[in-house]
Amino acid sequence: MLENLILAQAIDLIPDPIIAIDDQSRIVFTNEAHTQLTGWKLAEIKGQNGRLIYEILSDVNLLADEKKNFKQEAILYKKDGNKLTLNITCTALKHDGLPNVKLGQIVVFHPLFLQAQDIQKTSDDFVSTVSHELRTPLTSIKGFAETLIKSSDKLKESDQKRFLQIIKDQADHLTRLVEDLLFVSRLDNHKLHLTIRELALKKHIDRVCEVLAGQAGGRIFIYDFQAKLSTVMADSDRLEQILNNLIGNAIKYSPDNSSITIKTQFEKKEKNQIIISITDQGAGISEEDQELIFTRFSRLDNPLTRQTKGTGLGLYITKSLILAMKGEVWLDKSDSNGSTFSFSLPAK
Predict the structure, then answer these.
(1) Is residue 118 a part of any domain in this protein?
(2) Whole-prediction pTM value?
(3) 86/76 Cα distance (integer angstroms)
(4) Which domain holds residue 17?
(5) Cα–Cα distance list, 255 to 211, 303, 307, 337 (Å)
(6) Cβ neighbours of residue 190 under 8 Å, at least 6 residues apart?
(7) How many domains are contained in the chain?
């Protein structure tokens, strides 16, 4: 009994979805990975015909076949009605003392093929999103350029300058998008080179805030620095890129005449680290959006974000850089009173 319990729990730890059927093709066992993938719990399908879950795309019948293992393409049916085409490995179950008696089969669904489908979907989503991001500024540039070409003699000088400024702003947006895409490519291909050294954190925060002060409008910076602050181990340029992204977002997504608090503190858990927190007084982030904010092309849908331009790559790049420097980043809190983003970096 104990051996069976240990075996069942061990199989549940296997990341590959597994199903077992008896010699009558009735389902007798599934593991946790199979439940997570299909939505079917064992209690719901136990004793049912295996064709409820999958269908092998050939005429091969393992129970009548002499081969012990074979790989085959199959269709997997999910509880929600969707289906996946993927590869499986089937293994005959035989009795040790009766080698010619086949008790059933075990079917293993290969996650690599699922990953390939996920990669294809991600690729399709990527192309779709980039196309949209490119189309919007290109449409503006084309439209205003055509107007200037066809009607420049009829336009006031002030209108001409306004149209040219719009063209420049949209071209800048395209440039940022291309730069971010190239940067993401370097991250994904592990071609980003970091120079990790001791850095005075306050010095870099001051420098970033001084640069961003021109964009802050009526917003004010409040500093809450721990008195004895150790240096951090980081790449100088990438640290300022992280601060630019997080503090810049706090400026963009918070109302005029609000405050942005930048707090630093030393924390010693398993290893020494410094935590930097940026708190704004914006509209907050919905629970649905909170799960997506660190993914590529995530753009929140609220009045403040609709007024701002961005590529939706900033937080993805920020997280990737922090992880590359052996830190962590997270959303501390977010409600109608504002949001707090925090990240940690190793201390000296």
Answers:
(1) no
(2) 0.59
(3) 7
(4) 2-109
(5) 19, 11, 11, 11
(6) none
(7) 3
